[in-house]
């Protein structure tokens, strides 16, 4: 097991009707609150009314319009508004994009630095405190300090580290109005987050392996019912808990991490606009195929414990586990090939070019570089229908 | 899934050599530190020297002599010493007893209330900040806000709620000098902590069930090697992580909890001095047997997922799972019957009398009262050798 530090001070407030607790959670000294929203779905699902009713007469301003894959251009406007209002607490009401945007807003509120410079600096020096009301289980951003921000004019997308939310409210009923595609992408995102922390080296921690396998097994178990109907409270609870636990650090104690799938996925999204979760399900099966020797032992454990594959040769079990993974994503209605998702060669070329220009290499072996990325693209290009 | 709040702000600093990080972890403004120790084992295993070397010239005072099952009488002396020194940060160096005692010390430092009154009030109003250097993985106290305190003159033992440690340092190498009995009791404690949060109702959370089963499976897997030798770094890592994860709230999100085994175990310890973990392994198998109908569905899940029991009737699988649980504790060298542990009828009678006097009832069904406790004692009285 590797040395590690774990610090996750977010207060998680989970369950039906918990938005009403906002007045107890927002610091009592708060004199100017800014509430950050996305595109307006919260007006339809009742969340907006619940939030407004809960905050009562706490002085506040609203910022609307954080887009999926939040852009620094939009965030700059929120920062201006927040500075004008001398905001001392920010409440993010939305999914991972709204929360990620808020993580940059609270950093930019404390400095004269441009927001994009903060992203490029990799870590915010100082932040205003903030809380969240989560509406889309997927990114885990509600209980970690990370954020991913896009820049529209250059089609770039980078991660940076900010602060943890002071609190996050998770009411499973809020998610009933999500579309099947949103739920599918959220499940895929949670699944791949776990894989990034699991499918690396064997034998680093029995407990972390079990935790990771536990979340994967749960996502696989609940997905078929969940993509059909989103109003099963118990299923939604497990979906929400899976997505949060997948990326709050709890399954990462002392284990080697990967994140190469995310690095490639981010570029695809930045260049094509494809939803984050949808980009990951294309890259992951190819990543497993290309790095099968490096990941052999863990793939075998994954095959056995997550997919219950006990018979056949080692290679047959690995083949089958990768196939079942890809089948699983397809069963969620998500294409697993670039061609099926409408991603053309020009995007592949640009991702490879960027990796080469930046001289980057990712993954637990630091060997997912531009060349390896090209091989991965070769492996997930052709339509699956042509198999 | 039940509504829940989760808040665990302790910074976990894990790994070899991490005690040297103390100067970065103790708040820089600390003007008077008190270090709380147990009986002196830290002088033999090098921890004392590491701590002293790390804190350098931070002004500090030492308090020695916290006993196993820490007594309020000892704690009062520590509080007096701390008040005289105007202590503003406390460092607990030891196992669960030292950490639990420190949780009461930091509360009593903030008030004129007697320490036992704080325990009886169930929750400390205010505390000084504190950190820990853990030397015995068992109670999970290093990452939660709970503590259990004894009173020597009345032989009472009660839990109360204090604050979380600001940080906890877990260096697996520190545990190499533990005795086999200490490791056995620590493993048993961690195991039963998980069971208290798991063996109640079925279907409340798939993720929490998987997490709980993951810790149980790990403890079962590592125990045989671990009780024989304590210098296997990787095994010790998993033992430490299991004990911490067993009681830091991570496996308790939204699930019904039990804790009846602990309530009976605490009384046995208070009256007989039996080590905490050793008391639990006597009560638990009997608890499973007596409440088998109430816990039937979860016992079946436990049998299947933790003990891999897939054949036989339901009752056969439950019988076997309980037997394997008791065998497991015996394999750690811990007696699982009152007679084998030298606990006489007079102690049984006193526990039952106390429960009756206090009109208490425990467990997820609130039905473990004085009468039920008597039935449980009947079930774990006779020596196992007589079976």
From TrEMBL, chains A, B:
GO molecular function: alcohol dehydrogenase (NADP+) activity; butanol dehydrogenase (NAD+) activity; metal ion binding; methylglyoxal reductase (NADPH) (acetol producing) activity
Domain Fe-containing alcohol dehydrogenase-like C-terminal positions: 188-351
Coiled coil (residue ranges): none
Keyword Cell division in record: no
Alcohol dehydrogenase iron-type/glycerol dehydrogenase GldA domain sequence ranges: 9-172
EC number: 1.1.1.-
Keywords: Oxidoreductase
InterPro entries, alphabetized: ADH_Fe/GldA (IPR001670), ADH_Fe_C (IPR056798), BDH-like (IPR044731)
Annotated GO CC locations: cytosol
UniProt KW Oxidoreductase keyword: yes
PANTHER family: ALCOHOL DEHYDROGENASE YQHD
Family of this protein: Belongs to the iron-containing alcohol dehydrogenase family.
Protein name (database record): Alcohol dehydrogenase
Origin species: Porphyromonas crevioricanis
Gene: yqhD
